[in-house]
Amino acid sequence: MPQQSPIIAPSILSANFAKLGSEVDAVVKAGAQWIHFDVMDNHYVPNLTVGAMVCRSLREYGITVPIDVHLMVKPVDNLIKDFANAGADYISFHPDATDNISGSIQLIHNHQIKAGLVLNPDVPAEILDPFFDQVDLILVMSVYPGFAGQAFIPEVLQKVKALRQRIDAQKRSIRLSIDGGINIETAALAAAAGADTFVAGSAIFKTPNYAKTITAFKNIINQAAN
Ligand code: DX5
Ligand code: ZN
């Protein structure tokens, strides 16, 4: 499959939760195509965020762009159902957070939404082999999950390159997303390696002008990908 057009997915983790609706609205108006929704349970990762009610609230507030849910929870199946019913478009989970990876992917697909698997920095791409024909998105972590604002781990770029080749070699489209420490410089590196979806928390929400930031992201990614 030819590489798909780039998507910027701001992570709500770095937004001001006291005004989440208007924050999300603002990044969408500034050009973000998706919203990345980080769900942490203080068990699978040592941090706690928000659940499906908040996803539902964003829909009720009027957010219509795809919501890309990143589950950092264990187990996953109950929350898959909750987020599917709360308006998620993509749900991704970590393979070691379920006893039945294919079953959890199937559960996502049963709700007519797209399924992703997440690779931590130290997890090799080969772990995806049995599931390659089942996933719609691969989320490559470029930090260890749990917190926003960490430094990008450059060693994951080799994995992005290898995954890009495998995705290009097969017929179905799969989004190749990168998450963690993404800023203008690291987005360029990830784009050159073949990522097509860019999750960024701090590098967007901690800047004063979202439109300027997201436009800069798009320009650098387009340059790097060509
Ligand atoms: C990390 C989360 C990321 C994170 C990104 O556990 O999955 O989505 O919030 O934040 P930044 O872009 O600040 O690294
Ligand atoms: Zn995430």
Description of the structure:
This protein has 226 residues and is an alpha/beta fold. It has 8 helices and 8 strands; from the N terminus they run βαβαβαβαββαβαβαα. It has helices spanning 20-29, 52-61, 77-85, 101-110, 156-168, 184-193, 202-205, 210-225, and strands at 7-10, 35-40, 67-72, 90-93, 114-119, 137-141, 175-179, 197-200. It binds D-xylitol-5-phosphate and zinc ion. Residues 11, 13-14, 36, 38, 70, 143, 145-146, 148-150, 179-182, 199-203 line the site of D-xylitol-5-phosphate.
Main-sheet strand order equals: 1-8-7-6-5-4-3-2
- Taking Cα atoms only, what radius of gyration do you get, to the nearest Å? 16 Å
Return the CATH topology: TIM Barrel
Structural class estimated from helices and strands: alpha/beta
Compute the average pLDDT.
97
List the helices and strands and how they pair.
Elements: E1 7-10, H1 20-29, E2 35-40, H2 52-61, E3 67-72, H3 77-85, E4 90-93, H4 101-110, E5 114-119, E6 137-141, H5 156-168, E7 175-179, H6 184-193, E8 197-200, H7 202-205, H8 210-225
Parallel strand pairs: 1-8, 2-3, 3-4, 4-5, 5-6, 6-7, 7-8
Helix pairs in contact: 2-3, 6-8
Zinc ion (ZN) binds next to strand 2.
